[in-house]
Amino acid sequence: MKATYYGQSCLELEIDGVKLLFDPFITHNQLAKDIDVNSLKPDYILVSHGHGDHTADLLTVQKNSGAKVICIAEIAAWLGNKGVDNVHGMNIGGGFNFDFGRVKMVNAVHSSSMPDGSYGGNPAGFVIYAEGKKIYFAGDTALTYDMKLLADENLDWAILPIGDNYTMGVDDAIRATQFFNCKNVVGVHYDSFPVIKIDKEEAKEKFIKAGLVLRLPAVGESVLL
């Protein structure tokens, strides 16, 4: 399974040739200035919540690709009002089998509204079951005891926010791995704005000291999960 990072929380998983793009925010992110948003042609777009730094390029990418959007029911309704009908609405705790594998929507502790101020439902994370692996995309979230519910999943990788201020920081992300027993982490949601800038070397050292693997791919870089 290949993961390509596009900055902030925007990441694409390629699963047996099927592309899943998470939280498209590229054109307004200076760190992703070399990424051509019009070149992205995912088969699915997964949206964790409605904030602009997760949805700014959602309509553009969906229009260009025709991708099916997987999101909470309120965002599905918002998309319907925008003329997007290739949408699969879900809610917290529910799962569904797609052609690439299974998606379960799990809790995230954050806030959510759409860029135009519309109600965005609850924020969420996703667990992806595909290629015999289990990948947790946490979305924007605080450290929460609900993460302990994932302990029995035997997660292979966790994609976690580590930028602090708006979400978990590095220390709480490390604590989170102890809640759900996963040693492999891809860090996201950092450096895009001054208040979430991190010391990447210090973060890596903290993860190593905790016996964990932290991958921080550069924008545009692909890694194997």
From TrEMBL:
Keyword DNA repair applies: no
Residue span(s) of domain Metallo-beta-lactamase: 7-189
One Pfam family linked to the record: Lactamase_B_2
Superkingdom, natural source: Bacteria
Keywords: Hydrolase
GO MF assignments: hydrolase activity
Cited NCBIfam families: PRK00685.1
Family: Belongs to the UPF0173 family.
Protein's name in the database: UPF0173 metal-dependent hydrolase Mucpa_3902
